[in-house]
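Dock alpha-D-glucopyranose; give full complex structure.
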Amino acid sequence: MRNIDAALKSAYKVLDDSVIHYQGQPVGTVASYDPDAPAANYADCFVRDFVPSAFVYLLDGKPEIVKNFLELSLKAKELQHEIEGHEMLPQVMPASFKVIRHDDGREELHADFGDRAIGRVAPVDSMMWWILLVQAYVHATGDVAFSQKPEIQRGIRLIIGICLRDRFEVFPTLLVPDGCFMIDRRMGVYGHPLEIQALFYAALSTALELLVMQDEENHAVFELIAKRLELLTDYVRKYYWLDPTRLNEIHRYKTELFGHDNANQLNIHPETIPDWVVDWLPEEAGYLVGNLGPGRMDFRFFAFGNLLSVIFGLATDEQSQKILELYNQRWDSLMGLMPVKICYPAMEGREWQLLTGSDPKNIPWSYHNGGNWPTLLWAFVAAAIKMDREDLAHHAMIHVNMRLHKDQWPEYYDGKNGRLIGRRANYNQTWSASAFILGHKFLQDPNALKKLSLGYLRINQPTFTKTS
Ligand code: GLC
């Protein structure tokens, strides 16, 4: 017990030390305050990294910083530079922002919309996390008036508008470039990655709750959202789902089928089923595959996408149970010695060369390519609690209780089992510490999830009327 107290104290110290201020107010947390962090932008406040910090503040009854963050990140869009040859997309949230302090005391806000980021990757997830955080703030504080402010309503509408805008696309899922979410480097995750679909689903459902009914401007948006939600949900539940029965179907798929009514609409070639999955997938378990597109099923297991699908209800209850059962039966692969592995398995050899561009940071079983990320703990514990698998949540926390603070809150771990501290991992990574605090909070008080509006979205969803 004393060890846990010491670990929690140390986690809170990391969180407190990470707070950044603007005009005298706390507005966010830096990604890491490791002075040896390899990239300068770890001193920025990343939108996605701030999410677990924000949850901790909301549960601790300190919502001010979250409110300030939500307002400031919305304003940050004014800082966006035009990208030559493109119409400006002012509604996109930045990946990160920072406050520059000049010698004369002036403060200046800088934001990165992917125009400065390593590899110039677009942060598509930021805007969805922003909507989810507005919802969490409103639920935790009861400050409904905040979400009803015209600028917040406008912000939500703009984000939903950009997501629903038509593109060269025939699927209900969202088409995005490589590296546009937590995995923000080339990793063969372009197209329709699961994590973006889970966030898209959650953001759409949340927008239905947050947009003000009485506002005429919102009516057309409601209809669009409801229709897209219905299509998206059916599509992901059906076509992304993989369990032994589905695997067998795909194994025997006919190909080259033209027309509307055929089982293999995307022309997936059974030959693409990787060897590892056949014996690895247990009889009683299943998961949502990492990506799906024409002639392409990415069979890799991506943890965050699956866990968010459980938490927000994109996966059905039965599917969610099977995802947790997969963790239970494949603990060594998916959790190892330091929960939670970001994706499984790692890409190696020629595949790694081609899909990462021979990225030395993403070598097999490191960083995004099969590394283990403590920040995913909060989502794992939340998903496990939601599906009545506290046993698994406790099991995960035992691993981190013993180690994480002694290792100084690293960003990620390396190795098939996550035994080594990541070769280029920062120390004092804020979201590693805040996820650890959240894991404890969720286990102590399962109502905490409800307070943050996590895992209970389905209750308030509208009933759809079929228009065919
Ligand atoms: C890395 C991670 C990204 C995170 C950033 C700051 O780039 O891939 O998800 O937001 O570091 O911690």
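Observed: Residues 282 and 326 are 7 Å apart (CA to CA).
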